[in-house]
């Protein structure tokens, strides 16, 4: 018997329930990845992620070859390709991970229809791309199907028993009838960020080992420190499923201590957003909780938006974050918060414009976490204090007290001493003129006034 395993955002062999189930059920397996043009049409194809994905596929193929198998890559609409492969290889079943986006729902529905028509069974597995499946815990005593507030979700989520991580299969036999195309190569992708990390399960597990082997206690008190680089940088590996969230949480709990606990809490944010989007797929584009309609768009804020994208707002810590994003395809969480707050609350620009720019560059960029974090910051989402506005000067002084992060990413300010690096407009006029760094784009007080008026609190 033959079973197809359709890989999507789960590009690994460790702890892979669909692969595990398929290996138990069938003699031969077709490990399949489909490059669907629908992903491109949905505007979800960006060079940094395309390059990282190519690394992930190459690595997955190598790992399968060590076990006697190989990865089969095809291009075309996913349901059509899976059906064709299943028919060509006479497969009886297809296994895949559950997804939460509207795109994933449509994909599952079409797959079911296509496979039903040829008598092939589709098995969809939970807890592959999240630690706890969306919908596994719901608020008791209410009629809602998901948690809208993080802390009570975290409490319930923490009590859910997680399975033992599954070992990778020892042998994978792929039928000769399974035909695929050449694997994509990261080297063929143009316009990637120069500081992009290497993709793949192997690179992810190596990063994980150094993460667990490092000083995790730093994480608790320094994860907000912009220059400290005290976070795991595992997000791209989690996004592509090169690492298993179940395995990661189990490992962190076994490690114990305040650093590991703080880390588990962050991973829970990921699951939290997944269960929100699973219940409300429209939240990828529509305001989740509170609708606001006075946003500025491309037409009336083109120059402000361009300055923000280019890291030329004149607010050093905002510019540092935006330049890190362009250079590394990744940005520190604190910088994501304050750059997003600056765009949506100080410049009052529609969060969707910022979210789209992030998606064009982030190597971990995903509809679930990006859109819902943007909504959180913009005050349209799950933040219980939607009127908080982050002041970039205060944030800079607090989370980059020595100005190291700013000087690293904004070389024009490299020679400015002390905390004035966060307020270069306070330097003497001649010194300022010699810096070749823009004046502040907006007076923060004006931004706050507009924000309060727009929110009916002015
Ligand atoms: P760590 O601090 O080491 O955290 C460990 C893991 O927990 C991360 O890898 C990530 O998977 C998860 N995590 C941490 N914080 C969050 C969070 N707030 N929401 C969801 N998961 C979290 N994360 C993405 O994975 N993809 C995105 O597209 C994305 N867009 C964002 C946009 C904005 C405006 C903001 C404010 C945050 C966004 N985040 C996104 C969340 C967070 O910034 C990143 O997950 C984190 O910076 C990744 O770095 P790390 O792996 O070193 O994190």
Describe this structure in words.
- The chain is of the alpha/beta class.
- It folds into 3 domains: 2-128, HUPs (Rossmann fold), CATH 3.40.50.620; 130-163 and 203-279, Serine Threonine Protein Phosphatase 5, Tetratricopeptide repeat, CATH 1.25.40.80; 298-454, DNA Cyclobutane Dipyrimidine Photolyase, subunit A, domain 3, CATH 1.10.579.10.
- Helices cover 49% and strands 6% of the residues.
- The protein has 20 helices and 5 strands.
- Strands 3-2-1-4-5 form a 5-stranded parallel beta sheet, with helices on both faces.
- The longest helix is centred in the middle third of the chain and has 22 residues, at 258-279.
- The model has no long low-confidence stretch (mean pLDDT 95).
- Residues 223, 231-235, 238-239, 263, 266-267, 269-270, 273, 333, 336-337, 340, 358, 362, 364-366, 369-370, 373-374, 377 line the site of flavin-adenine dinucleotide.
- One of its GO terms (molecular function) is DNA binding.
- It comes from Streptomyces antnestii.
CATH topology of the largest domain: DNA Cyclobutane Dipyrimidine Photolyase, subunit A, domain 3
Assign a percent range to the helix content.
40-55%
Count of extended strands: 5
Count of domain modules: 3
CATH architecture of the largest domain: Orthogonal Bundle
GO molecular function: deoxyribodipyrimidine photo-lyase activity; DNA binding; FAD binding
Protein name: Deoxyribodipyrimidine photo-lyase
Pfam families: DNA_photolyase, FAD_binding_7
Domain Photolyase/cryptochrome alpha/beta: 1-130
